[in-house]
Design a protein that fits this description.
The chain is of the alpha/beta class. Among the domains are: about 110 residues, Helicase, Ruva Protein, domain 3; about 60 residues, Arc Repressor Mutant, subunit A; about 160 residues, Beta Barrel (Ribosomal Protein L25, Chain P); about 110 residues, Ribosomal Protein L25, Chain P (Beta Barrel), CATH 2.40.240.10. About 35% of the residues lie in helices and about 20% in strands. It is built from 25 helices and 28 strands. The strands form eight sheets. It has a seven-stranded mixed sheet, with helices on one face. A six-stranded mixed sheet has the order 19-16-22-21-20-23, with no helix packed on it. It is elongated and about 120 Å long.
Length: about 775
């Protein structure tokens, strides 16, 4: 009978029936466990929960000095020791301190008594461990040793419950990698040491559109420094494949080196007729980054040769975006700075019989297999007179052009060097009525500025022959043109004319609408420049065009904001909660860490009053299975307060809609830990919050096979949702435009320039990582 009573007792403590029967076979262990359970029941005055029972079993099976049984049982029963790490520390302490009396203050300090490890601290610690091993995780996936992540999180949070850490690791790894694939279920093979070293140095491979892959180093500077790209050294242009050497080349290179001192020189040459987009960010990083990585200089040169489309706001915006990305040009120059020199060289080309004035119309010049111009062989003297007449305004637009005598790589014959345009220039006024083309201007401006590496995107490869030809035709220093692949994003449209259509139709507000991928739009949405630069580094410098998923850019944004955006609490769809037994006569001041994972970064203060507001979705009268937040019989913790609230009464309006809740509160350490902790606000500020989704429904909105109706037919009508009456805690009251915060459990948000005194406006930058277990 006694054995049956003991078996029942042991199973009630949480032991399986098999484990309980094995324990009964050990008389000493059985006696000690019965004694521990009896003492715990006397302390508790009620039945023993299974978590406490398992700790009592661990105590009874591992304690050697039975004198300490009552002492340790009292700590377990009172839940001062409530985790396995604490029990292990306690057993080690009594083992190493055999003499009486025990110093309880020292004992409690060594065993973590009173230390509360919150779920959010566990979440932060696991996230930090995963971020440290992310490259290797992405490569090895579920073959990675997950125990390493748990160990690192445990090292930071010594007293955390191991099961909670394991659950958090499982959840975050599932979010990062997704469900297990067939390959993940295969037996793990040995990973070569070289592969591990490569993984430490590089991130996961990105697949480019044409099926190639390119390893991406973690640092853009590492990609660009020294011999990394196999670029020529300054002055050794002639060693580049395809570079044209003339009898004057070596002397010109010698003069070039005397002027530059062997310094690397690059340039970023945008046209000031639109706003820069994410693809330009790669060009900026490449040009400025390559110069910086090799102790060189980079010019910002505006290709202002088309006055019809150029506006002052575009010049300003481009300068702002270059600075915003963290780069300072060696000098800001303009193609128009060199108009006089360019004109003189055009005259010289005619003199050398290498250019002529043509009267074919624009439509006759289109295409790659056009017939030779009937004016190609006109006398040089005649072309000189006609070109002068063009400059003096004696021809109408389209009536005459200056063309160069060469056939380009793509078969285009005799590209235009100058055309007539009766549009005043923003810098030169009406001095000129003829303007040079890109094909003529680009290489000669590079030559004037002694650029060593003319870096441009792949579509300009067809113009490389004209680049070399023109410099050599005039016997001037010839830089080397290097091409790289463009960067594109799915679900995006970046051509200027198409963005103008989006603005004109009202689909977006302007060039800086946060749903676009212009740099001004990304800044307004709250993307940090460091994140954009990191994204460009991950994409890498490849020859093939790359088309990336937006979520890869968003991952870079989260990585930066996680370390730089202080935490705050906000409620989007609020539900009023009245705490009927509020523990103070007036509101309490709650200290909230700006960064829970690093409290050395300071705290901010928020009020905690009898009336708080929670998210309406954090309460359910009739919860579905697995719902962990506030419900009947299911209390929930309020983050950072140390209090747990429990539902007492639901107040409904005439329509049956829940209007408010009445709850009671207790200290979090005065009872069983709740299943979840939720965010809240009290005495909040009202604000507007703008929630953004993808602007387009398909990956390639410009592809007629994917979207036959054109990109305007592919708009996502739910791409913007405005919450007019959101609530945010008062710690953000003094925030300025572009200040960034993490609203706990909601995402990262940035203050919009539309904010004004009395009402802040926030843009959701990106969501937090999706929680697969969140219900």
């Amino acid at each position: 009978m006694a054995a049956l009573d003991s078996l029942s007792l042991f199973t009630s403590l949480g032991l399986s029936e098999q484990k309980a029967r094995e324990t009964l076979k050990n008389s000493a262990l059985s006696a000690q466990l019965r004694e521990a359970a009896t003492q715990a029941q006397q302390t508790l005055g009620s039945t023993i929960d299974k978590a406490t029972g398992i700790l009592l079993y661990g105590l009874a099976s591992r304690l050697r000095d039975t004198r300490r049984l009552s002492f340790l049982v009292s700590y377990i029963a009172s839940k001062k020791i409530h985790t396995e790490p604490q029990l292990s520390a306690a057993l080690e302490y009594v083992r190493s301190h055999p003499l009486d009396p025990i110093d309880t203050v020292d004992f409690e300090r060594e065993c973590g008594v009173g230390v509360i490890v919150t779920p959010e601290q566990i979440e932060e610690a696991v996230e930090a461990a995963i971020n440290r091993h992310r490259p290797q995780l992405l490569v090895e996936r579920y073959h990675f040793n997950m125990g390493l992540l748990m160990g690192e999180a445990r090292a930071v949070l010594k007293w955390a419950d191991g099961k909670m850490i394991k659950n958090e690791v499982d959840m975050q790894v599932l979010h990062l990698l997704g469900p297990k694939l067939e390959a993940d279920l295969e037996k793990k093979f040995k990973v070569a040491k070289a592969r591990l070293e490569e993984t430490d140095r590089r991130t996961a491979k990105d697949v480019v559109e044409n099926g190639e892959t390119a390893d991406q180093t973690l640092s853009l500077m590492e990609q660009l420094r020294g011999e990394a790209l196999k670029f020529h050294k300054p002055g050794e242009n002639y060693k580049t494949p395809g570079y044209v050497v003339t009898p004057h080349t070596m002397n010109l290179l010698k003069q070039h080196l005397e002027i530059t001192g062997g310094q690397v020189r690059t340039r970023f040459p945008p046209e000031p007729n639109g706003i820069l987009h994410i693809g330009h960010a790669k060009a900026i990083n490449f040009n400025f980054g390559y110069a910086k990585a090799n102790n060189g200089i980079c010019f910002l040169r505006f290709d202002d040769t088309n006055p019809e489309k150029e506006e002052a706001k575009f010049f300003t915006a481009i300068c702002d975006m270059v600075a915003w990305l963290g780069y300072t040009p060696y000098k800001v120059t303009y193609a128009s700075d060199y108009f006089d020199q360019l004109y003189a060289w055009a005259v010289e080309l005619i003199r050398r019989g290498l250019a002529y004035v043509c009267h074919q119309r624009g439509e006759e010049l289109k295409g790659h297999n056009t017939l030779p111009s009937p004016w190609r062989d006109r006398p040089m003297e005649e072309s000189l007179l006609l070109f002068e007449a063009m400059r003096k305004g004696k021809f109408s637009e389209g009536e005459a052009t200056l063309r160069m005598k060469l056939v380009m790589e793509d078969g285009k014959m005799d590209p235009v060097a100058y055309r007539v345009k009766y549009t005043p220039h923003h810098r030169t006024g009406d001095k000129w009525c003829i303007y040079p083309t890109y094909d003529y201007t680009h290489c000669l401006c590079d030559s004037i500025e002694h650029i060593t590496h003319s870096l441009c995107t792949k579509e300009f490869q067809a113009r490389r022959s004209s680049y070399f030809w023109l410099c050599n035709a005039l016997d001037v220093y010839c830089p080397v043109q290097w091409e790289y692949g463009r960067l594109n994003l799915h679900y995006a449209v970046v051509p200027k004319r198409k963005i103008l259509q989006l603005v004109a139709t009202g689909a977006v507000r302007d060039w800086d609408d946060p749903r676009l991928f212009t740099l001004t739009a990304l800044r307004r949405r709250g993307f940090p420049p460091e994140a954009i630069n990191n994204f460009c580094a991950r994409v890498g410098v490849t020859v093939a065009q790359t088309t990336m998923e937006p979520h890869l850019l968003e991952a870079c944004v989260r990585d930066v904001l996680n370390d730089t955006a202080p935490r705050a609490m906000a409620v989007l769809e609020s539900l009023r909660v009245i705490i009927t037994n509020f523990p103070a006569a007036k509101s309490l001041d709650i200290q909230v860490p700006n960064f829970p994972a690093d409290e050395t970064k300071g705290f901010h203060q928020v009020p905690f009053a009898p009336i708080v507001f929670i998210e309406r979705t954090d309460f359910k009268e009739e919860p579905e299975p697995g719902f962990k937040r506030l419900a009947w019989g299911q209390p929930v913790g309020l983050r950072h307060t140390g209090y747990v609230i429990e539902l007492q009464h639901v107040v409904k309006g005439p329509s049956g809609c829940v209007e408010s809740l009445e709850v009671t509160c207790r200290r979090a350490d005065a009872g069983e830990k709740p299943k979840a902790f939720i965010h809240w606000v009290s005495q909040p500020l009202m604000c507007e919050v703008r929630l953004y989704e993808r602007l387009f429904q398909h990956k390639n909105p410009e592809d007629p096979t994917e979207v036959p109706g054109g990109f305007l037919s592919d708009l996502n009508l739910a791409s913007l949702h405005v919450v007019d009456a959101a609530l945010v805690d008062c710690s953000v009251a003094l925030a300025k435009p572009f200040d960034k915060f993490q609203f706990e459990r909601l995402g990262y948000f940035s203050v919009d320039p539309d904010s004004h005194q009395g009402k802040l406006v926030f843009n959701r930058t990106v969501t937090l990582k999706e929680d697969p277990g969140k219900v």
